[in-house]
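Recall the central idea of this unit: under ordinary conditions, the amino acid sequence of a chain determines the structure it adopts. In this exercise we apply that idea directly, starting from the sequence alone.
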Amino acid sequence: QRQKHPIRISSERRSKTHGMPKRTGGRSHGEVQIQKSPAEFFAENQAIAGFDNMGKSLYTSIRELIENSLDACESIDVLPNISVSIEELSKEQFNKLRGISQQNKDVELFRKRKETASKKSDDKTPTRKKASQEGYFIVKVKDNGCGMKHEKIPDLLGRVLSGSKYGVRQTRGKFGLGAKMALIWSKKSSGVPIKVTSSHRPSGGEPPKHFSTCVLDIDITKNVPRIIEHKKNPNSIKQWVGSELEILIMGNWTTYKARIVQYLQQLAIITPYAELELTYKNLSEPQRNMSVRYDRRSEQMPAAAREVKHHPSSVNNLVIQQLLERTKQKSISKFLETELSSVSVGVAKRIAAECGWDDDDMAPDELTDKDITKLVQVLRTVQMFKAPDGSCLSPLGEYNLNLGIRKVLEPDYVATARDRPCAYEGHPFIVEAAVSLGGKDVKEGITVVRFANRIPLLFEGGADVSTRVAQTKIKWSSYKMDHKRDKIGVFVSIVSTKIPYKGTGKEYIGDDITEISVSVKRALQSCCQMLRTHLQKRNALRDRQERKGKLCKYIPDVSRSLFALLDSTRRRHLESSSEDSSPRKRQKTNGSKVETMIDRLVRGDITEVIIKQHLEKSVDAQSSLDQEDLENKTRKNTGVPLYLRPLFDKAQNCQNVMQHPLFTFRPLIPTDGENSEQSGV
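Accordingly, the structure predicted from this sequence is:
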């Protein structure tokens, strides 16, 4: 929080005019020391939080509000229902809404210095009206989540760097800003406060008895909320559930419409258990109205990530110092064992001995800065620690990822894989990947879709580790795929307690972390290996169809030529039989076969049409033989199918039934009369 008097100006620099420092000869005699609050810092450096321009500011505001809603629903294990409403206003409509009257009295103030050349008077070609660019937008995001406590709403939305996502666990947030940055952008662009309607239900269930309404602004200088209206309302009639946030900001829908729709599409892939709806209205141009909806495909939500302790390999001097200030332990070994993860009692004592400390005499609060540095160096080099705890991660799961891809893209083939949990610098991570072939609205070549902590990453994809691995480290031809002609979709989801983003915008993951790059490659290779069997069948079927097509193409010409050849033979035979030719000049042929063929030609048993039909049947028969050969080869490669014969009684005798949304496991009691060997199968 900002201090009461953050700006200090030396007395000799104060001038009598407005208190401004006096400058002499263009030289400054002193420096002005200014202390800024976190809200001021992010307001001036908004590009760090993704507010680069008007269009991206609109996109980032919508994204932050949606992700807050997802967190609110997942925290109480409720399937998310999220609706987004965007209403575009022109400048005149915004001024009318705000009660601002503006008339240009001095026209010269608003006239450009250099007028553009006017069109010819005889040119009567009607000009097409351009789509609106920058404008004002009323954005509303509603969810069915846990809501916010009445007394906590001002701090949750009006105080920067105040939140619940700090700690060692997987979270969607990047800076702890969320809706706070949207409020700051609203204050900068339109000056309109945020409106909040929320009902708090910490454990789900029925709607609470009251819901809160709050109109909130933020004091940028002091980084504190400024409450305009805050009250409780009875919830007996409305039965309000969840939260709705409404902001009025400036933005550019024209340039970032595709990005917003793409974000919603990819969000539907990575959260197939959510119901998402987007509605856009333009009051000036109703023909531009649109709506997008993605229905829920799955009812399986990932398990919630829980907070864990720091792994010894991930600590630094500052982390150890903070832990030392909070600990209540009296010995170094107890401190290491209780405040860090994966440290056993024996290893903790050996670390204390390695540092040259007597565990009984040395207390944690006695460590100096040099001791802390020494301890950190030892912790980061010891190789006896267990792997980091993976319970702090919440991956989507192969089942949900497969459903999400099928729901949105409808591909021909999909293969999913999850690599084993790994860690880099003590931070655990899990890579899930999927490879799809075909689908609607998918272009030829490789299309990489990236997710980090179940958030779509849309920008700066060329330098991302997933793109680099897919384009340079996977030999697609080895898996019967053409990376230039086939429609290949590559989906990579990385979850971790610390995503190694690159750049200030945190829009891509660099490929300099070897562990992540190797894990992504392994996951993609597993997907490609699963697809190779299907692709072999597909390629063989395609080759067989091409061969059949080529043969059928020449059947009319071949049948015509064969019939003409037979007919000419018939005519020559008739001419030779009518003439009295010497035996030496007669053709040496089998008379019975020739006579039979000629008789069939005369009777009409052999015609061009009949020859064509027989050739087509022969081609079909050959294709069927090729199909059987392919299936036999596939069976040999895949092995013999195994069928289990039930040896147990019916389900009424089952005990300890385990129910799961995907299956029901019933451990059945062996039937009477079955021998012990069979009942143990």
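Confidence is low (pLDDT under 50) at residues 1-26, 116-122, 584-588, 673-681.
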